[in-house]
Inverse folding.
């Protein structure tokens, strides 16, 4: 988060960054265009928390906002994918 905030401070684009428990996300002053969760859903302790997380992101986003997720699996390699891997997997969902 420090890096993201430093980039915004040096060249403001109107990006707001926040860290917290999305399952308990408070109502925000302004809805957002894009939500990024890294990692997010795989950190939910149970399905109800995962559902509450998604509802909170939906409630806080603009119509047709986008929600990008990076889900880690037990086989996630922190050193990056093998060089021969060409496809990256991600989930992208809009609210439209």
């Amino acid at each position: 988060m420090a890096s993201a905030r430093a980039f915004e401070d040096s060249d403001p684009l109107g990006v707001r960054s926040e860290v917290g428990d999305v399952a308990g996300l408070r109502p925000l002053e302004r809805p957002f265009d894009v939500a990024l969760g890294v990692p997010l859903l795989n950190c939910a302790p149970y399905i109800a928390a995962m559902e509450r997380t998604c509802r909170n992101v939906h409630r806080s986003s603009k119509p047709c906002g986008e929600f990008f997720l990076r889900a880690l699996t037990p086989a996630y390699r922190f050193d990056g994918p093998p060089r021969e891997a060409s496809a990256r997997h991600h989930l992208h969902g809009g609210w439209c």
Notes: The helical segments are 2-10, 47-60.
